[in-house]
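STRUCTURE:
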């Protein structure tokens, strides 16, 4: 897997990819910094890696998925989940990291994908 950070989102209510979900990438630390904001495409993925090979650096990161806004735009009330933060560590900046999110208005799951 080439060095990059990627993600995709699956909407478990529809059983399909989640298009149009806003995702923020934060570099964690004493003074967290929002590195970028992306939106998923029709395939539930971002058009480009969240971090490309040249942007990869070891450290602590957080992806923040805007779940409530996504479901609200589709007419589903999400009284339980709002933003879903996933904190993780990039130990090897030369490796590939894939962080998928499987989500409904009431639950989510993630894993380190390939």
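SEQUENCE:
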């Amino acid at each position: 897997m080439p060095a990059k950070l990627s993600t995709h989102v699956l909407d478990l209510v529809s059983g399909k990819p989640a298009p149009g979900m806003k995702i923020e990438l934060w570099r964690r630390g004493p003074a967290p910094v929002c590195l970028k904001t992306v939106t998923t495409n029709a395939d539930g993925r971002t058009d480009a890696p969240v971090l490309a090979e040249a942007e990869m650096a070891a450290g602590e990161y957080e992806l923040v998925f805007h779940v409530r806004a996504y479901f609200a735009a589709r007419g589903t009330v999400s009284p339980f989940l709002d933003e879903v933060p996933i904190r993780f560590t990039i130990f090897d900046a030369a490796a590939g990291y894939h962080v998928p999110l499987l989500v409904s208005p009431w639950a989510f799951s993630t894993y380190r994908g390939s």
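REMARK: The chain has one helix and ten strands.
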